[in-house]
Design a protein that fits this description.
Structural class: alpha/beta
Strand content: 25-35%
Number of domains: 1
Number of helices: 6
Order of helices and strands: EHEHEHEHEHEEH
CATH topology: fumarase
CATH architecture: Alpha-Beta Barrel
CATH class: Alpha Beta
Distance between the termini: 20 Å
Largest sheet: 5 strands, mixed, barrel
Strand order of the largest sheet: 2-3-4-5-7
Length: 188
């Protein structure tokens, strides 16, 4: 992992995205949108029909999460990342429309990585198993679309110092691949 630690505020721009490298630790503040499988299917349907999306993806970051209901006095319940590959069929549609970041866990398909390089978007990893800790970074939460999807509804989160690691950067850097190579070298 890089020793580089950055603080960024959403919305993100191309200059910020170009500077990020796989392994960078980033603390995000500002707005994140949540969306999982069912919401992404609806995004794709809306795009196919020429309808507007429930938020403008330009400069935004989507967090692949289905938060649990909030306890009294908290804006959100547990909020750990879900597997990103389930959103792969839909991710390029949003990346082409200006999405600058996605947060989840797991590897991305090559066609998603290619779209990230072409349209300047990064994939951030959030540490699984820290859902309750991650939720502490959320200052407010409101449903902005698809309330009928319950935990998979699209939320607008206001976050402060939300910790993520760059997994895939715009130059083809891949922390999973690079980390494995470094580990293998240390073992030989």
């Amino acid at each position: 992992m890089n020793e580089n630690s950055l603080h960024l505020t959403t919305p993100l721009d191309n200059a910020e995205i170009k500077k990020l490298r796989a392994g960078d630790l980033v603390y995000l503040s500002g707005v994140l949108y949540t969306a999982r499988d069912a919401a992404h299917e609806r995004f794709a349907e809306a795009i196919k029909k020429g309808e507007e999306l429930p938020f403008d993806p330009r400069g935004q970051v989507i967090y692949y999460v289905g938060p649990t209901p909030a306890k009294p006095g908290w804006p959100i319940g547990s909020a750990g990342p879900t597997t990103a590959s389930r959103m792969d069929p839909f991710a390029p549609l949003l990346i082409e429309r200006g999405l600058k970041g996605m947060i989840g866990k797991g590897r991305r398909e090559q066609f998603v990585v290619d779209a990230m390089a072409k349209f300047l978007c990064v994939f951030f990893g959030a540490v699984e198993g820290t859902a309750a800790l991650i939720a502490r970074c959320v200052k407010s939460s409101e449903i902005v679309a698809y309330e009928d999807l319950v935990t998979e509804a699209v939320h607008r989160l206001e976050v402060e110092n939300f910790p993520v690691v760059v997994i895939n950067d715009t130059r083809g850097g891949d922390l999973y691949r690079e980390g494995r190579i470094r580990y293998q070298k240390k073992q030989s």
